[in-house]
Amino acid sequence: MIFNIQRYSTHDGPGIRTVVFLKGCSLGCRWCQNPESRSRTRDVLFDARLCLEGCGLCQQSAHGIIERAQNGLLIHREKLSEKTLDALTDCCPTQALTVCGQEQQVADIMTTVLRDKPFYDRSGGGITLSGGEPFMNPTLALALFKASHEQGIHTAVETCLHVPWHYIEPALPYVDLFLADLKHVDSDIFKQWTDGSAKRVLDNLKRLAAAGKQITIRVPLIQGFNADEASITAITNFAADELKVHDIHFLPYHTLGMNKYTLLGQPYSAPDKPLDNPAILDFAQHYARQKGLTATLRG
Fold first, then answer.
1. Which of 87, 189, 220, 277 has the highest CB neighbour count under 10 A?
2. Strand partners, 72
3. Is 263 in contact with 232 (CB distance < 8 Å)?
4. What is the dihedral of CA 272, 277, 278, 283, to 10 degrees?
5. Cα–Cα distance, 242 to 239 (Å, whole number)
6. What is the pLDDT of residue 64?
């Protein structure tokens, strides 16, 4: 299942790219900027600012599940069924209520991807799978990587690698670049902030490196989690000494995805302000370069 296809991207791998976003993730990172991607099934997002009072179309489509409330709508999300979600899809004239996620065949996705092949060829771009965690959909991910390779299209994946290795291994011959998150190397801190296993991620990174795959390490820097010299040092040492990668990207924390939690009716438990610490950003870049890495600060 996918939830978006973004064409003409220049921030998700080399050149001009088409990014296909797949639903499903096995982590629960507090700062996740795409919370609508976590579930492997469809989600309903509601923006009260766009809702037309007195419209009632969504209530008619989801009788007994959506009610008019003082601040907009009350959605009984636990009662949503596939049939109801089908009825709600495209029912709202203002897009105040949207259904996130759709099943698409590989051929249909590739039709969109291939529209921009001339741009990939000229710029060194291609397709990037993102999410969520693309390898939570291993069959679809593998099929898209293979189909792209057959068309001579460069392939990349944005991944947290928090999946069993046998989800990843079949795709290795067809993935040209892994844009891999390395959020922390401390198991307890990683578990506290992501609900996941750092060991699983680190083991998968080691296996990728041993397989000779091209890896760019990406480090989201979040205050209170890893935006400190000790954490950055440990992460960078692992990238340089254990993985022997060449490139590391530091991504300062921002709050651009915060409103999505409101749209999903979920609490937001990450910091409510962006990272504002030029000194720690300077340290991260300087230390990585000391370790022989090409360090990039990505906004």
1. 220
2. 69
3. no
4. -130
5. 6
6. 86
Helices (H), 44-105: 57-61, 82-88
DSSP H or E stretch at residue 19:
strand 17-22
> Which residues face 135 on adjacent strands?
none
- Measured distance CA(144)–CA(21) in Å, rounded: 12
* 3-class SS of residue 260: helix
Query: Taking the model in full, what pTM does it have?
Result: 0.94
For residues 130 and 142, what is the distance between their CA atoms, to the nearest angstrom? 13
Q: What percent of the chain clears pLDDT 90, i.e. is strictly above it?
A: 94
Pairing of strands 72-75, 66-69: antiparallel
Which of 195, 153, 200 has the alpha carbon at shortest distance from 17?
153
Q: Is the peptide bond before 72 cis (omega within 30 degrees of 0)?
A: no
How would you label 202-211 residue by residue, b for 16+ Cβ within 10 Å and e otherwise? Answer: bebbeebbee
Question: 60-72 burial, b if ≥16 CB within 10 A, otherwise e?
Answer: ebbeebbeeeeeb
Q: Tokens standing for 133? A: 């965690």
